[in-house]
Design goal:
alpha/beta, globular, two-stranded antiparallel sheet, nucleotidyltransferase
Length: 242
Protein backbone atom coordinates (compact mmCIF):
# COMPACT_ATOMS: atom_id res chain seq x y z
CA UNK A 1 0.00 0.00 0.00
CA UNK A 2 1.11 3.53 -0.73
CA UNK A 3 0.36 5.66 2.33
CA UNK A 4 0.43 9.45 2.34
CA UNK A 5 -0.35 12.14 4.89
CA UNK A 6 -2.27 15.30 4.02
CA UNK A 7 -2.56 18.28 6.36
CA UNK A 8 -5.58 20.48 5.58
CA UNK A 9 -4.70 24.08 6.35
CA UNK A 10 -7.14 26.99 6.25
CA UNK A 11 -5.79 30.44 7.07
CA UNK A 12 -9.03 32.05 8.22
CA UNK A 13 -9.86 29.84 11.22
CA UNK A 14 -13.08 31.13 12.80
CA UNK A 15 -11.94 31.09 16.45
CA UNK A 16 -8.28 32.05 15.92
CA UNK A 17 -7.61 33.56 12.45
CA UNK A 18 -4.08 33.08 11.17
CA UNK A 19 -3.18 30.62 13.93
CA UNK A 20 -1.26 28.30 11.59
CA UNK A 21 1.17 31.10 10.78
CA UNK A 22 1.89 31.99 14.42
CA UNK A 23 5.44 31.31 15.57
CA UNK A 24 5.99 28.19 17.67
CA UNK A 25 9.60 27.92 18.76
CA UNK A 26 11.61 28.85 15.66
CA UNK A 27 8.98 27.87 13.07
CA UNK A 28 5.32 28.55 12.32
CA UNK A 29 2.65 26.18 13.66
CA UNK A 30 1.96 24.71 10.21
CA UNK A 31 5.64 24.17 9.41
CA UNK A 32 6.18 22.55 12.82
CA UNK A 33 3.29 20.16 12.16
CA UNK A 34 4.52 19.37 8.66
CA UNK A 35 8.10 18.66 9.77
CA UNK A 36 6.93 16.47 12.64
CA UNK A 37 4.74 14.36 10.34
CA UNK A 38 7.59 13.93 7.84
CA UNK A 39 9.96 12.91 10.63
CA UNK A 40 7.73 9.98 11.69
CA UNK A 41 9.01 8.17 8.58
CA UNK A 42 5.61 6.47 8.15
CA UNK A 43 4.59 8.08 4.88
CA UNK A 44 5.60 7.83 1.25
CA UNK A 45 4.73 11.53 0.88
CA UNK A 46 3.40 14.36 3.03
CA UNK A 47 1.41 17.32 1.65
CA UNK A 48 -0.27 20.44 3.02
CA UNK A 49 -3.63 21.15 1.31
CA UNK A 50 -4.62 24.80 1.51
CA UNK A 51 -6.61 27.57 -0.16
CA UNK A 52 -4.16 30.18 1.18
CA UNK A 53 -1.24 31.57 -0.81
CA UNK A 54 0.38 32.52 2.51
CA UNK A 55 0.37 28.93 3.81
CA UNK A 56 1.25 27.46 0.40
CA UNK A 57 4.32 29.70 0.14
CA UNK A 58 5.29 29.03 3.76
CA UNK A 59 5.47 25.27 3.14
CA UNK A 60 7.14 25.51 -0.27
CA UNK A 61 9.73 28.00 1.01
CA UNK A 62 10.62 25.59 3.81
CA UNK A 63 11.24 22.68 1.43
CA UNK A 64 7.84 21.04 1.84
CA UNK A 65 5.07 20.00 -0.54
CA UNK A 66 1.80 21.92 -0.78
CA UNK A 67 -1.33 21.60 -2.93
CA UNK A 68 -3.68 24.51 -3.65
CA UNK A 69 -7.40 23.73 -3.33
CA UNK A 70 -10.66 25.62 -3.54
CA UNK A 71 -12.67 26.62 -0.47
CA UNK A 72 -14.37 23.77 1.39
CA UNK A 73 -16.73 23.25 4.32
CA UNK A 74 -14.67 20.41 5.82
CA UNK A 75 -11.06 19.28 5.97
CA UNK A 76 -12.03 15.95 4.40
CA UNK A 77 -13.52 17.68 1.37
CA UNK A 78 -10.31 19.72 1.02
CA UNK A 79 -8.17 16.58 1.21
CA UNK A 80 -10.36 14.78 -1.33
CA UNK A 81 -9.69 17.53 -3.88
CA UNK A 82 -5.97 17.49 -3.08
CA UNK A 83 -5.50 13.72 -3.59
CA UNK A 84 -7.59 13.24 -6.73
CA UNK A 85 -4.51 13.02 -8.95
CA UNK A 86 -2.09 11.59 -6.37
CA UNK A 87 -1.29 7.90 -6.60
CA UNK A 88 -2.02 6.39 -3.16
CA UNK A 89 -4.11 3.79 -1.34
CA UNK A 90 -4.41 5.21 2.18
CA UNK A 91 -4.64 8.88 3.16
CA UNK A 92 -3.97 10.03 6.72
CA UNK A 93 -5.51 13.38 7.66
CA UNK A 94 -3.37 15.18 10.23
CA UNK A 95 -4.76 18.42 11.64
CA UNK A 96 -2.56 21.43 10.93
CA UNK A 97 -3.12 22.78 14.45
CA UNK A 98 -1.92 19.55 16.16
CA UNK A 99 1.86 20.06 16.04
CA UNK A 100 2.76 17.36 18.59
CA UNK A 101 1.11 14.26 17.15
CA UNK A 102 3.04 11.15 18.15
CA UNK A 103 4.23 8.18 16.10
CA UNK A 104 2.24 5.43 17.86
CA UNK A 105 -1.36 6.55 17.11
CA UNK A 106 -0.45 7.06 13.44
CA UNK A 107 0.99 3.53 13.35
CA UNK A 108 -2.20 2.18 14.92
CA UNK A 109 -4.33 3.78 12.20
CA UNK A 110 -2.16 2.34 9.44
CA UNK A 111 -2.34 -1.15 11.00
CA UNK A 112 -6.15 -1.06 10.77
CA UNK A 113 -5.92 -1.17 6.98
CA UNK A 114 -3.10 -3.70 6.86
CA UNK A 115 -5.28 -6.08 8.90
CA UNK A 116 -8.49 -5.35 6.94
CA UNK A 117 -8.14 -8.15 4.37
CA UNK A 118 -11.73 -7.83 3.09
CA UNK A 119 -11.44 -4.04 2.78
CA UNK A 120 -14.60 -3.44 4.80
CA UNK A 121 -13.31 -0.37 6.60
CA UNK A 122 -13.71 3.01 4.89
CA UNK A 123 -12.23 5.13 7.62
CA UNK A 124 -10.32 4.77 10.90
CA UNK A 125 -9.96 7.34 13.63
CA UNK A 126 -8.89 7.81 17.26
CA UNK A 127 -10.68 8.11 20.59
CA UNK A 128 -9.49 8.83 24.12
CA UNK A 129 -11.25 8.17 27.42
CA UNK A 130 -12.77 11.16 29.23
CA UNK A 131 -12.98 11.12 33.02
CA UNK A 132 -13.69 14.72 34.07
CA UNK A 133 -17.36 15.78 34.19
CA UNK A 134 -16.53 19.19 32.71
CA UNK A 135 -14.75 17.57 29.75
CA UNK A 136 -17.58 15.09 29.18
CA UNK A 137 -20.20 17.86 29.12
CA UNK A 138 -18.13 20.28 26.99
CA UNK A 139 -19.80 20.54 23.52
CA UNK A 140 -16.42 21.35 21.96
CA UNK A 141 -15.42 17.76 22.78
CA UNK A 142 -17.01 15.42 20.24
CA UNK A 143 -18.03 12.19 21.94
CA UNK A 144 -18.23 8.81 20.20
CA UNK A 145 -19.93 5.51 21.02
CA UNK A 146 -18.96 2.22 19.37
CA UNK A 147 -20.20 -1.35 18.97
CA UNK A 148 -18.43 -4.39 20.46
CA UNK A 149 -16.02 -4.52 17.51
CA UNK A 150 -14.94 -0.90 17.83
CA UNK A 151 -17.00 0.48 14.95
CA UNK A 152 -18.55 3.92 15.48
CA UNK A 153 -22.28 4.00 16.12
CA UNK A 154 -22.60 7.75 16.53
CA UNK A 155 -20.71 10.97 17.24
CA UNK A 156 -22.19 13.90 19.17
CA UNK A 157 -21.40 17.12 20.96
CA UNK A 158 -23.98 16.03 23.53
CA UNK A 159 -23.16 13.59 26.31
CA UNK A 160 -23.45 10.09 24.86
CA UNK A 161 -24.37 7.64 26.17
CA UNK A 162 -26.90 9.21 28.55
CA UNK A 163 -26.19 7.79 32.03
CA UNK A 164 -29.70 6.89 33.18
CA UNK A 165 -28.79 3.71 35.07
CA UNK A 166 -26.48 5.25 37.67
CA UNK A 167 -25.68 1.89 39.31
CA UNK A 168 -23.87 0.87 36.10
CA UNK A 169 -20.42 2.28 35.38
CA UNK A 170 -20.09 3.74 31.88
CA UNK A 171 -17.12 5.06 29.92
CA UNK A 172 -17.05 8.18 27.79
CA UNK A 173 -14.75 8.73 24.84
CA UNK A 174 -13.66 11.86 23.01
CA UNK A 175 -13.12 11.69 19.27
CA UNK A 176 -9.69 12.92 18.18
CA UNK A 177 -9.89 14.34 14.66
CA UNK A 178 -7.09 12.33 13.07
CA UNK A 179 -8.48 10.24 10.21
CA UNK A 180 -7.16 7.49 7.98
CA UNK A 181 -9.12 6.96 4.74
CA UNK A 182 -9.13 4.55 1.87
CA UNK A 183 -8.67 6.91 -1.06
CA UNK A 184 -11.77 5.67 -2.90
CA UNK A 185 -13.91 6.15 0.24
CA UNK A 186 -12.58 9.69 0.68
CA UNK A 187 -13.38 10.59 -2.93
CA UNK A 188 -16.85 9.08 -2.52
CA UNK A 189 -17.35 11.09 0.69
CA UNK A 190 -16.64 14.35 -1.11
CA UNK A 191 -19.41 13.67 -3.63
CA UNK A 192 -22.06 12.92 -0.99
CA UNK A 193 -24.59 15.55 0.02
CA UNK A 194 -24.55 16.70 3.64
CA UNK A 195 -27.43 15.16 5.58
CA UNK A 196 -29.38 16.61 8.56
CA UNK A 197 -27.36 14.97 11.35
CA UNK A 198 -24.01 16.23 10.04
CA UNK A 199 -25.44 19.71 9.49
CA UNK A 200 -26.98 19.77 12.98
CA UNK A 201 -23.93 18.52 14.89
CA UNK A 202 -21.26 20.10 12.64
CA UNK A 203 -19.30 16.81 12.73
CA UNK A 204 -18.09 15.72 9.30
CA UNK A 205 -17.57 12.00 10.00
CA UNK A 206 -21.30 11.63 10.70
CA UNK A 207 -21.69 11.82 6.91
CA UNK A 208 -20.01 8.42 6.60
CA UNK A 209 -22.44 6.90 9.10
CA UNK A 210 -25.47 8.45 7.44
CA UNK A 211 -24.46 6.74 4.19
CA UNK A 212 -23.75 3.38 5.84
CA UNK A 213 -19.93 3.38 5.78
CA UNK A 214 -17.83 1.75 8.52
CA UNK A 215 -15.57 3.79 10.81
CA UNK A 216 -13.12 1.83 12.98
CA UNK A 217 -12.23 3.61 16.22
CA UNK A 218 -8.88 3.02 17.91
CA UNK A 219 -8.43 3.89 21.58
CA UNK A 220 -5.31 5.87 22.37
CA UNK A 221 -3.84 7.62 25.39
CA UNK A 222 -2.33 10.33 23.19
CA UNK A 223 -3.16 13.80 24.49
CA UNK A 224 -2.30 16.41 21.91
CA UNK A 225 -2.25 20.18 22.08
CA UNK A 226 -4.79 21.40 19.56
CA UNK A 227 -4.24 25.10 18.93
CA UNK A 228 -7.74 26.59 18.82
CA UNK A 229 -7.17 29.72 20.91
CA UNK A 230 -4.32 32.12 21.82
CA UNK A 231 -4.20 30.35 25.20
CA UNK A 232 -3.57 27.02 23.46
CA UNK A 233 -0.73 28.63 21.53
CA UNK A 234 0.91 29.72 24.78
CA UNK A 235 0.64 26.15 26.13
CA UNK A 236 2.31 24.87 22.96
CA UNK A 237 5.07 27.46 23.24
CA UNK A 238 5.72 26.32 26.80
CA UNK A 239 6.05 22.72 25.63
CA UNK A 240 8.51 23.76 22.90
CA UNK A 241 10.59 25.79 25.34
CA UNK A 242 10.82 22.86 27.76
Amino acid sequence: MKIIAVIPARYEASRFPGKLMKILGEKTVITTTYKNVVETGLFDEVFVATDSDIIFNEIENNGGKAVMTGQHETGSDRIAEAVQNIDCDIVINVQGDEPFLKLEPLQQLIEVFKEDENQEISLASLKIKLTEKEEIENPNNVKVITDNNGFALYFSRSVIPFHREISYDISYFKHIGVYAFRKHALLQFSKLEMKPLEISEKIECIRYLEYGMKIKMIETNFIGVGIDTPEDLEKARKIISE
